[in-house]
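Continuing the series of single-chain predictions for the mutant panel. This is the parent chain; the variants come on the following pages.
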Amino acid sequence: MTLKKFNYLLISILICIFEIGLSGTVRGKEIVEMKHKSKHTIFLIHGIGGNKKHFGKMDKALKSVLNGKNEDVEYSIVNVEYDTGNDNKTPYDFAKDINTIIQKTTASGLFQKQDKISLIMHSQGGLVGSIWLFQSMQSTPGYATPKIITHVDSFITLATPFWGAKTAQWGSEIKSLAKRLGTDLPLPFGQKELEQMSFGSDMIYDFRQAMINPEFKPIIDYLKKNIRFLNIVGVADVLNPLGIFISGSKKYEDDGAVPLSSARFDFLYLKSLKDQYEQGDRVLLKENKSIEMSPYIVVNALHRSPVPDLKNFASIVQVTKDCINNKYCGHPSFKYIVDHLQGKKVRQRDEKLGDFKTFLIDINVQLPKNLKFKKEDVKIEFFKLDGGSLKDSNIEISHALELNSEGKRFSDDEPHHLRAYYMGSIKRFLPHRENAILLKISMEGLRSRFIEVKLKESYSTFIEVNLINKTI
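Parent structure:
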């Protein structure tokens, strides 16, 4: 072999080695990238009487927008359906149903340590998801375990009636009436799920207790620290002419199904349970506390819409096709959802939606267990803090024209608990002044109590007190 041929052969071999090395480096880089690409599964959970169609094009829109922005994370969307409409099932049963689907997704071998899950829930879906989250943290049989909860990133609710809804109450009453008349109405809502979403239900009471009971503080602290919560709620400006009948104010502070104060998870509360107290015992304003758990965004949208593509009739949940590949589409909720999932700080953009007046008062009165009584026997009265009439004050409770502005019921689980709710409004904003009222609760044969109650626009206030016998 000549020297010239030898040099040619040597150069060829070196070039091959270089190309192989370069190719190996590229492939190695691809392998490393594939190995580190994490999964983020987003579960869409519909509301009462719903199905996956209630989200419109949200699954396609989220997948296209999120995967187009982040090459390090692979986003996938799972529509979760459960047996809504079944008269024998409660939201607790539905939470077990969705657990089965979530467990399959997070099964060992399919899910890695760095992988995440998020939940986007509409209406009752937020209650179902909340039950799943809390019960899983306690390792309750039928649910997941705290290990699964470590993968939860975002928990987004859309118009969830955490503290009750008039529409659920109306639906429950209609179904009960139809049953008494022997008529089977073809409604897509189950009796028990309607009852549990009505004001003062045992499920709602349990939700309140989970937040304020010291026993559950370690769980709540973990959730607040490790999961990114977001409440998105709707007000339907197009329905403002009906505001006085639904919200007791000039504005329609409701999305057509859920009032603002109920869709906000955060709330004010006062709990005073005493074995002994004097007649006319007074609980002071300083005893009022608050729960701060989730950011709160208001959008101009209906709960659901027959024509979601029309701007003035947009739905809080039904994402339209123009949002596919475009997070800046005209949908009222979509950009907030995308920004939150991407870890961005979400702020209220439409400041015009911030001037609210309404509130909800939710009361639980514990009475002696051996006492027989009717709802009407427990008297609940409202006054100004100085004991004067509310008539000329800044606070209005149970407007005469507002439908179902108040109500009472017994607890199914605790028959000696009387539940009551009242809708109200703060007439005008007064700077540097807290809004508060004096609440009197009394019953013949029992020692009455006075409670100073703090109120706040678009919030609910939960009051739990007991009454004792005069002879004790």
